[in-house]
Amino acid sequence: MKSLKILSVILLLSVLTFAQNEEIQQGKKAPNFKGTTLDGKNIELNKMLGKGPILVSFWATWCKPCMEELNEYQKIYEEYKQSGFEFIAISTDNEKTIAKVKPLVKSKQSSFTVITDSNSEIARKYYAYQIPYSVLIDKNGTVVYSHSGFMKGDEIKIKKLVKEQLNISTN
Length: 171
Description:
6 helices; alpha/beta
């Protein structure tokens, strides 16, 4: 009975910690990061600011909800990239699975920017302790939304927020 209580407390604290991390980021300046895309181009978040919102998604090849999320975000990206919307998918695969990233992205014919973060340097800056983890950043570099996990329907909120950031009617 005592171990059940301890387990319950640990579970509750874990949930509160993840929820708190999401709340902590919203309204704050997004941490800058640099990376190299799968095709060898160097990118830096701060140099991408100013045109429109940027969605950053932390994911891994072995994560099924991540794959579902990336499929949905690809659709949103295709719809709004001409309006200034950017999407950066940051793979958190480690040394054992990193070789799967490029073939997976190629097989899905993804058009968004993909970088790798095998040492979790960027993930730590964003408190991305659980994947998938998404962060929407406005054109000025402020975090307007962050979310852990993915369930079908979560993409509706992201699409609504992207449209708001682009000043596109949400009707």
